[in-house]
Amino acid sequence: MIIEILTVLPELLTSPFEHSIMKRAQSKGHLTIKLHQLRDWAINKHGQVDDYQYGGGAGMVIMCEPLANAIDDLQKEEKFDEIIFVTPDGKRFDQKDANSLSLKNRILIICGHYKGIDQRIRDLYVTQEISIGDYVLSGGELAAAIIVDAVGRLIPGVLNDETSALTDSFQDNLLAPPVYSRPVIFRDLEVPPVLLTGDPKKVEEWRSTQAIARTKERRPDIMGE
Ligand code: ADE
């Protein structure tokens, strides 16, 4: 899968993908991440990509031309499967969205800044508008990083048995059950005895009961979705 990101701050997006599972996904050839500096398509030699908004009001808007020219150039040879704009007024991102994006071949994520991007780019090019939550970030880069991480780890072949996504929270509309490691007793708190029985069926039953109880208590909204 190829994920391309269009941003005025590509520097913000180097480190998040240089470690752990994202690093392995790239070195194993499952994921290619390409960062594009939007100012390479600026309207003048000063690197301008934004301007005041019509109608007045505080805050600059990223203009049509740099974005349209960038997108046209980037998909000259092959079209993107999805062009995503990350924005607080988009659809709230969830695990189902991550699952379905992980099956695409090539996507573009556009990061906004200031007051956002000209509406006409959203009308003409954008196929999905995604928010990572009900709060406003200073720019779309951290939202893009979160989407790439959530999607990248689901690309077939990226995770192995040990890191399998099948037991993740949300994968079956349930939160994950609690987990324990050594020692058996820590500050008077004991590992639940069933986990020490070596009986996979009992362990599975316990985990399922715990997952259901935790979800009922913390996130009843996701059950039976
Ligand atoms: N850009 C600024 N805030 C955002 C959010 N909550 N989700 C996605 N993109 C954003």
What does this structure look like?
- With 225 residues, this protein is an alpha/beta fold.
- It folds into 2 domains: 2-152, SPOUT methyltransferase, trefoil knot domain (Alpha/beta knot, 3-Layer(aba) Sandwich), CATH 3.40.1280; 169-223, Orthogonal Bundle (Trp Operon Repressor, Chain A), CATH 1.10.1270.
- The protein has 6 helices and 9 strands, in the order E-H-E-E-E-H-E-H-E-H-E-H-E-E-H.
- Strands 2-1-6-5-7 form a 5-stranded parallel beta sheet. A two-stranded antiparallel ribbon has the order 3-4.
- Strand 5 (82-92), helix 3 and strand 6 (106-111) form a beta-alpha-beta unit.
- It starts with a strand and ends in a 7-residue tail after the last helix.
- It binds adenine.
- Adenine (ADE) binds next to strand 5.
- CA-based shape: elongated
Derived from helix and strand composition plus strand pairing, the structural class reads alpha/beta
Q: What is the CATH class designation of the largest domain? A: Alpha Beta
CATH architecture label name of the largest domain: 3-Layer(aba) Sandwich
Query: How much is the average pLDDT?
Result: 95
Oligomer: single chain
> Helices and strands, in N-to-C order?
EHEEEHEHEHEHEEH
- Measured as a percent range, the helix fraction is 25-40%
Question: Order of strands across the biggest sheet?
Answer: 2-1-6-5-7
Instruction: Name the CATH superfamily classification of the largest domain.
Output: SPOUT methyltransferase, trefoil knot domain
Low-confidence regions: none
Task: Enumerate how many helices there are, as a single number.
Answer: 6
Report the portion of residues in β strands. Answer: 15-25%
